[in-house]
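Re: [ENG-882] Designed sequences occasionally contain unexpected residues at chain ends

Forwarding the minimal case from QA. Structure tokens:
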């Protein structure tokens, strides 16, 4: 009798699992329509963004960001990125600020180097590294207080190896109030508290390597 009940429970759990995943997945809105760059803008005098199939490709000789026209506050922001071969670095901007030829604010790091800090939290154009923090590369006292802890965190195998260097990678960024969480391919890489920005634009980055193409797809958001 107990075995029968156990089997029945297991079967019901398996049948319910897709429903639970579907419920969690609802409420997302696409940020890219797969046809053109409606809703996005390049605030720089350089850099090229084009639609190739269901992807956005960025090419440039200098660093630039393609950003959303709309600002967002509390949300779950998801997107996939594919780094080019060779020297490469990118990022997903969020709650960021936009001026002519300038974008600054929070960035979820996409690190193609052997350092492997993908999923770290960088404050572009302002306070630099927040997580992992780094002496000489951080201007915030609170970040420096977590220096040893954050450096040790990024030495964990699951965090170091979260990014697939030569494939597509899914980033998930959750912002609610002053809480920031970054996940790379399902691995939590950053959980940080900071109240510098409560609202801003979203963006994707070309790091400036000449001749390189950075690819993005499946960009979407769920406002909380």
């Amino acid at each position: 009798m107990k075995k029968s009940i156990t089997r029945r429970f297991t079967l019901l759990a398996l049948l319910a699992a897709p429903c639970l995943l579907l419920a969690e997945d609802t409420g997302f809105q696409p940020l890219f329509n797969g046809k053109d760059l409606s809703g996005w803008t390049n605030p720089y005098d350089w850099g090229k963004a084009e639609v190739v199939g269901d992807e956005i490709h960025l090419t440039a000789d200098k660093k630039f960001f393609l950003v959303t026209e709309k600002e967002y506050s509390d949300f779950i922001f998801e997107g996939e990125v594919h780094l080019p071969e060779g020297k490469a670095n990118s990022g997903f901007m969020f709650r960021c600020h936009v001026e002519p030829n300038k974008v600054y604010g929070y960035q979820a790091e996409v690190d193609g180097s052997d350092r492997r800090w993908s999923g770290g939290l960088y404050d572009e154009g302002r306070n630099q590294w927040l997580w992992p923090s780094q002496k000489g590369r951080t201007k915030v006292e609170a970040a420096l207080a977590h220096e040893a802890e954050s450096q040790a965190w990024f030495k964990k195998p699951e965090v170091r190896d979260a990014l697939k260097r030569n494939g597509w990678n899914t980033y998930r960024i959750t912002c609610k109030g002053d809480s920031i969480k970054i996940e790379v391919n399902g691995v939590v890489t950053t959980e940080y508290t900071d109240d510098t920005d409560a609202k801003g634009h979203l963006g994707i980055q070309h790091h400036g390597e000449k001749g390189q193409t950075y690819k993005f797809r499946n960009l979407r958001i769920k406002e909380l």
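QA comment: On inspection the terminal residues look reasonable. Residues 2-25 form the longest helix (24 residues). Proposing we downgrade this to a documentation issue.
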